[in-house]
Amino acid sequence: MSSRSNQRPEQEQIPVLIVGGSLVGLSTAMFLGRHGIACLVVERHDGTAIHPRAGHFHLRTIELFRSAGIENAVRRASENQFPPDGGISAVESLAGKEIAHYIANLNEGVAKFSPTVRLFMTQQSLEPIIRARAEELGATLRYSTELISFEQDADGVTAVTKDRSTGAERRVRAKYLVAADGNRSPVRERLGIAMRGHGQLSNSVTIYFRANCEPLLRGRNLGVIYVFNSVLRGFIRLENKGNSGFLAINTVGDVSLPQATNVSEGITEERCIELVRAAIGVPDIAVQIQDVAPWSAVADAAERFQDGLVFLAGDAAHVMPPNGGFGGNTGVQDAHNLAWKLALVLKGVAGAALLSTYDTERRSIGALAVEQAYLRYVLRTAPHLATPGMQEQVVDELSMEIGYRYNSRAILADPGDNGELYDNPRLGQTRPGDRAPHLILQRGGTQISTLDLFGKNFVLLAGPEGSAWCEAARDSAQLSGIDTFLVDSGADPEGRFAEAYGISRSGAVLVRPDGFIGWRGKTDDGASWERVIDALASLLCLEESNEPD
Fold first, then answer.
1. By the 8 A CB rule, do 340 and 33 touch?
2. Is the distance from CB of 233 to CB of 250 less than 8 angstroms?
3. Who contacts 328 (Cβ-Cβ below 8 Å, separation ≥6)?
4. Averaged pLDDT, 355-381
5. Is there a single domain that holds both residue 184 and residue 230?
6. Crossing angle, helix 59-67 and helix 23-34, to 10 degrees?
7. Which domain, by its residues, includes 371?
8. How many domains does the chain fold into?
């Protein structure tokens, strides 16, 4: 970041400045807009993603897109590109024998746990949808613009940006800065925040190609196809008709040799064609190379996600191999966690200490995601790095997607909670710190998911005999920011709510705007507005809370 010129540029004011206008930066802007917070996004590139950069989007991420109002658009775009419900398998080559099936059907059994489905989608198609929604909600997006300096003080951040096409500079004064500026984050470097983990694993490459692979699919609904043979180890993703896709390669040749992990150095178009043919398994198949993107497989997380009024999100905070699809998903979830906290602090509803819980909550989950991506990288792509007992360390996909937990002062944990990083949703043992479970409810003659009740405000959900909790909340003007919902037999004909949320029929839970349970009263003993106010004040990190940290 360069030094300043003598002429002082004009200054503009904005609540939140977001550096980086790709998936995570755009998602942050969209989620802030959902809470009515204006923001400015600066992105050094000319627009949204130009490379397909296909992604496997998890249940929780699609749930967040649902809350922001873009789920249907995202699903339509996904279905135009990839077959639904694809599996994840391993083969010697596309034309050769199958070696393993990691996931037979991406969405088998998920309807019990979520109103959404997992999707395959290119970032090239997703980002314009998020961008349009962010702008609709009030975000200002400035492309071909880079951050060249920033300084923070007790009251905010002063940044200087430059238009890369004209050279014009602007001063921006923001209350907070969010760095979503990628794995080589200049903001993170400027703050001196180190990365910790396994480091660089390979100099990988992604080859975008066209080739007629449809006959080789043999009717198989394959989403991600891992390839293991003597020439390469990596994975293929094909679009709907099987005539285009990409091949990501992590190692080539003899993995005992140092050069095996240096795939991208000096790669040529002829070599790309050779590698694509080896992955397809047809030596003379016609291949057209559309693009080649070198990248580094790295498994690291930042030692902290916050520095004063500056926050790291996405690849700026954690970098991981693509195996398992955790990278982009973890970044979108960073954005969602941070946005509601910034919004409530900016509105004066929450104490400033709430912002410190972003680091507490997301850094542990980011480190977990990095480790799980690393384990899948080793076990699926680089088995020569495997160590005894590694397979037993793998956390199942459902637990990683919707079972991860938060432990911070913005959660009132049950006595005896040991702060585990995840719960298995299949076991139905919900507690504070967990994502609120999905159940189908009846409301106004239509079916909705419990998840559709969350997104902007705190929500008090009470069991069918828990009206005392709802009345207490309604009786207090101090609780005007809480939505209340009595889940009685009319709303829950099957009577599943109380058990799913771990309370009695007279109990209640307080769900945060991000859809995570912050507090619960298992019965209506002591139901009062004072008790709800104390719980809310604690979750908002307000000093007047009578609850312990």
1. no
2. yes
3. 23, 24, 55, 57, 61, 123, 314
4. 96
5. no
6. 40
7. 11-84+118-195+303-397
8. 3
